[in-house]
Amino acid sequence: TAKENGSSQYQFYDSVRDQSSLEQMILEDDLEAAVDNDQLRLVYQPKIDIRTGDVIGFEALVRWHHPILGVVQPLKFIPLAEKTGIIVPIEHWVLRNACLQVKKWQEEGIPAVPVAVNISQIHLMQPDIFENIISLITELELDASLLELEITESAMMHKEDHVIEILEKLKQAGISVSMDDFGTGYSSLSYLQSLPICCLKIDRSFIRKITTDTDSRAIAEMIISMARQLGLTIVAEGVETKEQVALLRELQCYNVQGFYYSKPVSAEEAILDRGVWTA
Ligand code: C2E
Ligand code: MG
Ligand code: MG
Ligand code: MG
Predict the structure, then answer these.
(1) Which atom of ligand 1 is nearest to the CA of 257?
(2) Scanning 10, 116, 121, 147, which has the fewest C-beta atoms within 10 Å of its C-beta?
(3) Angle, CA 272 vertex, CA 267 and CA 273 arms, to 5°
(4) 181 closest CA partner among 204, 199, 160, 158
């Protein structure tokens, strides 16, 4: 009957909700020990210049190998980590390990390209963030130009004076910063102009619809031409099809990242195909 259906449906949704909140509770309990217990791993996604097919850099993305739940994706634990502040030790781990990986590639004679690390708003607000990053690259004797940082548009919009000061110092130290997920925040043109950044990454939500939705295409086109005016590099995120590559080429956006070329992969797999990627 309708009533029975209704109640069993209710039970179904309820158990799904319980399950996911149970999972969240497990994650929350275990996250603090994840760094100490060596459960974090990095995967690397290449950034490609579509004109040449060259890998121009990598983005390091964190994964949590949970002993019971298996591989946990960042969207499941990064928000939690930000809420509890554990994001700071997590990102210290990410920074150190990404830098160690670049060093290793360099020592193996693999032509060096920069690796980008994501920095959360909480971490950006730490008073010692600049000193920590500098002491890390000094300790590892890493060329500063091989480390890049990605900060989301929304994270850059809190405490603007503080953000500008940190970015200014990073720039002077030779560390480039990209604005991530651009188009999803609401930063003003004048703020954008005042920020010492080198690059805008157009958010995947626009790229996904770029060949099918005229509004998304218009927005992408506007972002690309604005970035050009401001002297910023542009990277298109989430490129999945050859039609998207062709359109981006037409719009003169030559740097892309996305499943069309490669998913994020292990450090070992990342260097296997460092040659030319054909589109
Ligand atoms: P993000 O920085 O914008 O990274 C790009 C995300 O898009 C990655 O998801 C990547 O796997 C995904 N992606 C790349 N190309 C494609 C594509 O063609 N199609 C689709 N559907 N997706 C694509 P991932 O690795 O799940 O990371 C999600 C987000 O988690 C990242 O977005 C970043 O904001 C955050 N994250 C990852 N690692 C860290 C970290 O160490 N610190 C912080 N604060 N955030 C991190
Ligand atoms: Mg990113
Ligand atoms: Mg992004
Ligand atoms: Mg994104």
Answers:
(1) 15
(2) 10
(3) 115
(4) 204
